[in-house]
Amino acid sequence: MLVRFYRDSDFNSISAVEKKAFREGAYSNYMLKIMLNSPHGFTMVVEDSSSIYGYATMEPLDSNSVDIESIGIIPEQHGKGLGSLLIEAMEAEAARRGYREVFLEVREKNTGAIDFYKKHGYNIFEFLTGYYTLSYEGSTNAYRMKKIIQYC
Ligand SMILES: CC(C)(COP(=O)(O)OP(=O)(O)OC[C@H]1O[C@@H](n2cnc3c(N)ncnc32)[C@H](O)[C@@H]1OP(=O)(O)O)[C@@H](O)C(=O)NCCC(=O)NCCS
Question: Could you tell me the distance, in angstroms and rounded to a whole number, from the CA of residue 78 to the centre of ligand 1?
Fold first, then answer.
């Protein structure tokens, strides 16, 4: 498995990953394009020689902090360490660019992702009532989580 920066030619594969990973909560292609082409953000993909299995994107909040806008791995590949490879590479790149804090928002009922983030050193920082428009497991609420990162 290889983690590398996103290229424009990956768009259709990322769109397919997004739909599989987030189902009805997936970003539209229009929103996805805006996110992936953000001039200050950056995106990485995880792939092998045959396919792209996941992607993650970060966007700066200010000169010190970035936000994980999205991270998704196709369901068939969950629990095999791909999400970990991706988030570690993204954090290393954020630290290299001089950011010291990573924030993210995760649905209150997305316990798998919350466990994943806790495993990677993120702590719950804030509860966001009605953060999402679409409901998931009966809730539109989210947690904001935070991690301090260091360049080494
Ligand atoms: C959250 C996500 C990115 C994690 O990626 P992953 O490749 O499955 O994660 P890894 O294999 O590197 O890490 C596994 C850890 O993630 C957590 N986890 C979350 N969902 C899991 C699943 N379906 N299967 C296994 N582990 C899962 C567990 O804590 C697990 O730790 P463990 O192996 O000690 O039990 C991935 O499950 C995903 O794309 N989910 C759907 C989209 C999503 O909810 N994204 C986050 C939005 S905020």
Answer: 6
